[in-house]
Amino acid sequence: MQNQTSPLLAILGHIPLWVWAILALLLALGFKQSRDQFLPRARLALLPMIWLAYGAWGVHSAFGASTLTMTAWAFGLLFSLKLFREIGAPAGSRFDSERQQFFVPGSWLPMAVMLTLFCAKFALGMSLALQPALAANSAVAMGFSALFGALAGCLLGRARNILCLQRMAASSPALTAAAL
Question: Which pTM value belongs to this model?
Answer without folding.
Answer: 0.84
